[in-house]
């Protein structure tokens, strides 16, 4: 009679059939997770201190983390280094539209296109450039100061027939801003 329930038990137990196998299974169930945990701890620890073998990499990483702060400082210094002339700003920022006439921009030197605009006065034109006008974004979307944009406006309008004086630069930059074209001997 006792044979019947025994055979039933064996059917349900699957691969573990002897007490020895049971002991091995229990032992593995205990040891395997511990081994995995040890490996995980070692992996995490080594990824934290692993850079000790590659100092250059960690220095690079540090430099990269520091760089954005440095570049902001450099930018501020260069912004203080003196405004660029109207022509420089024009070439860097305005030529994209005003040389080709893209988006309906009045072209450099196009007296017909500039005539009516010049009539509104330099101040009004500067306002258009600083605040934007239709397809032209404010400040022409650029990184130039108000003074630099204003000088570019004067340069652009003068090329179109106006006789505006470029807004004065602070004393130090004034001589540097004078176009050196006549210096060629
Ligand atoms: C993305 C193209 C684009 C760029 C870049 C651009 N402009 Fe313009 N600009 C235009 C367009 C288009 C108009 C005509 C706007 C209108 O009257 O509808 C215009 C018009 C002007 C006018 C006449 C405004 C008026 O009141 O009639 C001035 C002055 C001017 N631009 C100056 C500049 C200066 C200075 C720069 C560079 C700092 C510049 N633009 C860069 C597209 C551009």
Task: Give the key terms.
disordered C terminus, 65% helix, disordered N terminus, 8 helices, 185 residues, mainly alpha, 2 domains, rod-shaped, binds heme C, Cytochrome Bc1 Complex, Chain D, domain 2
The value of Rg in angstroms is 38 Å
Helix share, percent: 55-70%
CATH superfamily of the largest domain, by name, is Cytochrome c-like domain
Query: Architecture of the largest domain, according to CATH?
Result: Orthogonal Bundle
Secondary-structure element sequence? HHHHHHHH
Sheet with the most strands? none
Structural class: mainly alpha
Which molecules other than protein and nucleic acid are bound? Answer: heme C
Structure description:
With 185 residues, this protein is mainly alpha-helical. The termini are far apart. It contains 8 helices and no strands. The longest helix has 31 residues, at 19-49. Helices cover 65% and strands 0% of the residues. The structure holds heme C. Heme C binds next to helix 4, helix 6 and helix 7.
Topology:
Layout: H1 3-13, H2 19-49, H3 55-80, H4 86-98, H5 111-118, H6 122-131, H7 146-159, H8 171-177
The protein binds heme C (HEC).
Heme C binds next to helix 4, helix 6 and helix 7.
Structure in a nutshell:
The chain is built from eight helices and no strands.
């Amino acid at each position: 009679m006792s044979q019947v329930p025994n055979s039933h038990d064996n059917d349900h137990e699957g691969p573990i059939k002897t007490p020895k196998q049971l002991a091995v299974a229990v032992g593995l169930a205990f040891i395997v997770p511990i081994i995995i945990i040890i490996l995980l701890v070692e992996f995490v620890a080594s990824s934290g201190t692993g850079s000790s073998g590659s100092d250059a990499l960690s220095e690079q990483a540090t430099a990269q983390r520091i760089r954005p702060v440095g570049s902001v400082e450099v930018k501020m210094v260069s912004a203080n280094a003196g405004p660029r002339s109207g022509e420089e700003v024009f070439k860097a920022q305005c030529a994209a539209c005003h040389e080709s006439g893209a988006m309906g921009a009045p072209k450099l030197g196009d007296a017909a296109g500039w005539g009516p605009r010049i009539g509104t006065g330099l101040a009004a034109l500067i306002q258009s450039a600083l605040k934007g006008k239709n397809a032209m974004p404010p400040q022409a979307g650029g990184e130039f100061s108000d003074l630099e944009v204003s000088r570019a406006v004067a340069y652009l309008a003068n090329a179109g027939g106006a006789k505006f004086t470029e807004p004065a630069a602070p004393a130090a930059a004034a001589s540097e801003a004078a176009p050196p074209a006549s210096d060629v001997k």
